[in-house]
Structure formats: C-alpha cells, structure tokens
Design a protein that fits this description.
Largest sheet: 7 strands, mixed
Helix content: 25-40%
Radius of gyration: 28 Å
Structural class: alpha/beta
C-alpha cells in the first residue's frame, strides 16, 4: 500500500479517505454522490488541497466512473486494497453484511445464546453479494496508511458539506490531552500537524442512555498518527471475524465496520466531537417526532435559511466553538440539528431516489414534511444544480415541485412565450430567453419579462432572414414589440440555422425547433454536464404521436411547414444516451 502512495503524498501530510460503493446498480449513483460531496467541500474550502484516497478494488469501477471520480478532485488517488484472505470462502470468515430495505444495516448471521455468551453461526445464508460485505471491511485498510500523518474518513457517496469545517479538524484531534508535534507545516491550504488519537461525532438520534452515549456512526471520523499501523488493522480485523460481544448499540444488529470501530475504540483513544459533524438526514426530518414541535421548527428554519440566496455562503456559526471532548448532551444535540455542518443521507432513500419508489424505514412515524422538498434533500440538489444549466419549455411536464429544482440551477433558459406560474410549478428565475420572429408578445406579458433580462440575454433565432423582415414581424399586434435593428435583442450566429441543421440531420428547407436551439447553445456555451431539460414534451413523444401544446391550426401548419419534429426528437434522444443532457423529471431522477 505504501508503494501505491509513494511520491503522491508529502511527508507528514494529512489525507482524506473514503471507499465507494461502485458495483452494480449502485455504482453510478454513489459516484454522483461523491462528485456532489467533493463539490460541496471545494465550495466551502476553495483552497482545499489534501490528498483524497479512494479505496476501490481493481476492476470494480468502469473506466467511465473512474474518470468521473478522478475528475471530481485533482488530488484523488485510487488505492487498490489488499486482498482479503477470506474472500474465497466468505462464510468461513468475516460476518456478512446486508442492507434490507426496512431494517437498513443488518448483519446476516445465525446466533445462539448459551450462558450469556454469543456464538455466531458460519452457515447463515447471505442476503447480499459478497463484494458488498467486502466493501465495508475494505475501508478499514485506511488504518494501514502509515505514510499519512492523519486520516480524515468520510462516506463521500452520501454526505454533503453545509459549512466550512476543515480548519477545525486538527483542533478536534488536539483535544483531550493529545500532544501535537512541535513542527507544523502548511498543506492543502490549512495548518497540518502530526497529531494523535481517534475522534468521531456520537450519533444524535435521540437522548441515549449513558452506556450508549459514545456510540458513533462510521460515516465520519478522524484518525491520528498513533492509531495508524498494521497492528491496529490486525486487531480491527480480529474483531470483524469474531466479535467478542454484542454490538454496543443494538444486541440484534452488527453494523459491519461501524460496530468493529466502536468496539475497538470504546475504551481506547476515542474522543467525541460535536454531533453536527455527522447529522443523519432522517434525524432532521424526524425532529418533530423526537424533540417536539418547537425544536423541529428551529431545525427546519435553519435549513430554510441555508436555502436562501447566499445562505450556503454564510459566515462561521457557533459550531466553531463546539469543541468539547465530552459526549453531546441533549441540548447540544438539538444545537447540532439546527446548525448542521455535514448531512449524512443514511438509509435506502437518497436525494436522487425518485419519490415514487422511496421506501419508508421500519418504525419511523410518517410526517408530511419528511419527504417534502423543503427539507434536507433540497440542500443536496442545491449543491448539485448550482453550476448546471436547464432548458425550460412550456410542455405539461413542467409541474410542481419541479419549479424548485429549476430555480436552483445557475443558468435557466426559457423558450418562446413562456409563462411563470409559481415557485413550485415553473420556478421564478430566468437567465436567458430564446425567441424567434413569430414568438407572441402579448401572452403572459412576455415583452415585460424580456425587458428585465436585457438585450444580451434575449437570443433570437433568425434562420438567415433579413433584419427588416424579422423586425416587421415582431412589430405586429401579437409580436414581441422589440427591434433587432435597435439592438434590443441579440441575433444568434449562423451556426444555429446552418451547421446545427446538418448535425440534427434535418431535410432541406426545415430548421430546428427553438428548444433544440436552446439545448445546442447550452452545450456549446456551458461546461458542466449534464444540461437539464424539462417541458420539451413535443420532442420526447413517439415520432408519430406528437402534438404541440398550442393545438391551433396556425401552429400545427407551421410545425409541418418549417420543422421536422422526429429529427429533433432523435437528436435529443442521442444526446441523452451520451449523457450530454438529462430530463428534469422526478420519475427518472434516480436512474
């Protein structure tokens, strides 16, 4: 392992580490989650530069996914973990791990009780593929990275950073009498020290009994130099193979590496950090049930504040002062919920999971706000969409709650005579408008809306016609009322009625639909992919079954005369297959 990192990590440099669930149907989803996590880290820490170790078995990730992981952060280092000795005979080795839809993390093992001693059966039928079990134990190998001064471990596949925190990590490792090395050096944009110990935030689910108050989730923890080494890894794997006692948290569950870490560090160098560093998404959602209505309002108000313009860039909050090495008390847990630093999307339901297939967790009381868009999922989507572009048409697929998603995008391109209805339905923001000479100007005050954008953001598809003819058409009673000759809008380059026609494969005498032109402009003028599209229903329908939203005879005749909708449709489908564009549709969000 040291050979893999040689020359890639500076001496005594701290490292961030993770492992990704990148097999089967989970691969692309968790890579997307990883991309969003690293985006949120860089968003709040522009000078961040620590190495990121990604543990992944060779051959597990497709080349396309490897490129995305490496592209998410320029100091990413793929680490091939050592082969686990029991992999060829899994039932004779480490306890299997499974994710059941209702019980979440549940070990699949048989058990017998005799004289209060737990005996584990080696013959329990597996509930999940072995490589999934291996994943969670594989990441324990980060304890063997002795070339690192410290390890900052995160579940990057389903976490989100809400506030700056990197500068506090060395401070947490210093607490509790741990002595930093006298030498310090600058690494990755923040002070890096040779530190010691193990630090993790206790879970903040509810008021825990005293014997469980220190139990932590393995989604985030810090490992100091004294806890890195092969001897520590060997002891951790001994516990994994045959746990000496039940889980510290639940006698009926064994949560893979999480329970292994809790058992090992329970009486060693474990120090607690604020619960706000690893807040379970479901805990925030269930705050009303667990902590009461008033406390729930505080939590939801904090989330709402973060979603306001500039809210994600707010100044440092009181969490900077929450550096106590003692377990969080009830009051501190509430403070952690209302001032979360990192949200952890635990459980089978992730932000990208379609609403239609979301599975409620067993025993959790349903509340209306649990899956509402005004909750923690919106924070994830706000980070994911903040640098994306969306093309918005006027089709019936533009409906609540997609308006929230639309307004989260950086660039919002609307076409023709669009209508703004509400925040939830259509969204309220517009950054660019795409029109042509026949676009109506007296429908839903289109002219007034265009006037607020400015000439540079009103892009006109002229299709090679003379300026005089275009202006005359726009000055008709139902026209836009703008003049190209007076530079009240911007004429699109010739590419959009010459070269684009050939790219789409249009017959001679036909030109692209305004929606296609807006998509082509977004691909040529923006860097982030995918470009999202919504409301272009005309082009997603079957070639022989499309109908225009405005079913008047004039519009239908214009479509047949000037356009070839099947060609535009096939072009958009090809872009979607290549990953250039993606439909903003709740029904397919999780695909």
């Amino acid at each position: 392992m040291a050979q893999q990192l040689q020359g890639k990590i500076m001496p005594h440099e701290s490292c961030m580490a993770t492992s990704l669930e990148v097999y089967g149907k989970y691969g692309e989803q968790y890579v997307l989650g990883h991309e969003v996590f690293m985006s949120s880290v860089l968003h709040h820490h522009p000078t961040f530069g620590l190495p990121l170790l990604v543990f992944s078995r060779p051959g597990l990730m497709a080349d396309k996914l490897i490129s995305r992981v490496l592209g998410a952060y320029n100091r990413t280092i793929l680490v091939a973990p050592l082969a686990i000795p029991w992999r060829t005979q899994p039932l004779d080795g480490v306890i299997r791990f499974s994710k059941d839809a209702y019980t979440k993390w549940m070990m699949s093992f048989g058990r017998e009780k005799s004289n209060s001693t737990v005996k584990f059966s080696r013959t329990a039928a597996p509930a999940e593929p072995w490589n999934r079990s291996e994943l969670f134990y594989m990441r324990l190998q980060m304890f063997a990275c002795t070339v690192c001064a410290n390890i900052y471990a995160f579940d990057t596949g389903d976490m989100l950073v809400l506030r700056p925190f990197m500068h506090t990590l060395p401070m947490y490792l210093e607490r509790g009498g741990l002595t930093p090395n006298a030498s310090t050096r600058q690494a990755g944009g923040h002070l890096c020290r040779q530190l010691m110990g193990f630090v993790a935030p206790p879970i903040c689910y509810r008021v825990l009994t005293k014997d469980k108050a220190n139990y932590f989730n393995a989604g985030m923890y810090l490992v100091g130099g004294s806890c890195l080494g092969w001897q520590v890894l060997a002891q951790l794997m001994d516990i994994s193979i045959m746990p000496p006692i039940n889980s510290k948290y639940s006698p009926k569950r064994w949560v893979a590496d999480q329970d292994t870490l809790n058992m090992y560090f329970w009486s060693r160098q474990y120090r607690a950090m604020p619960c706000s560093m690893n807040v379970n998404k479901h805990i925030v959602s269930e705050a009303r049930v667990v902590y009461g209505i008033e406390e729930s309002k505080r939590v939801l108000h904090s989330i709402h504040q973060l979603l306001q313009p500039g809210g994600m860039r707010a100044k440092q909050h009181e969490y900077d002062r929450q550096t106590s090495s003692e377990p969080c008390a009830h009051g501190n847990r509430l403070s952690s919920l209302s001032e979360p630093v990192i949200i952890h999307y635990l459980g089978p339901t992730k932000p990208w999971t379609p609403r239609s297939v979301r599975i409620p967790l067993a025993g959790m009381k349903r509340s209306r706000e649990l899956y509402s868009f005004d909750n923690t999922d919106q924070l994830w989507w706000a980070e994911y969409l903040r640098d994306k572009t969306v093309v918005v048409g006027a089709g019936p697929s533009v409906k609540a709650p997609l308006g929230h998603y639309i307004d989260l995008c950086q660039d919002i391109l609307r076409i023709n005579d669009w209508t703004i209805q509400s925040t939830a339905t259509t969204g309220l923001r517009t950054t660019h408008a795409f029109v042509h000479k026949a676009t109506h100007g007296n429908k839903a005050n289109t002219t007034q809306k265009l006037g607020r954008l400015g000439a540079q953001k009103i892009l006109l598809a002229g299709f090679g016609e003379p300026v005089q003819i275009i202006d005359e058409r726009m000055q008709k009673p139902n026209g836009l009322g703008l003049r190209l000759a007076r530079k009240e809008l911007t004429l699109l380059p010739d590419y959009y009625h010459t070269r684009l026609n050939k790219v789409i494969g249009l017959p001679k005498g036909k030109h692209a639909l305004t929606g296609s032109i807006a998509v082509a402009w977004a691909i040529r003028n923006t860097a982030k992919r995918p470009v999202f599209v919504v409301g272009l229903d005309l082009m997603w329908a079957n070639d022989s079954s499309y109908t225009h939203g405005d079913k008047t005879a004039t519009v239908a005749a214009s479509l047949r005369r000037y356009h070839s909708v099947p060609h535009d449709s096939r072009w958009l489908h090809a872009l979607e297959q290549r990953g250039e564009i993606r439909r903003l549709d709740l029904a397919v969000m999780g695909n």
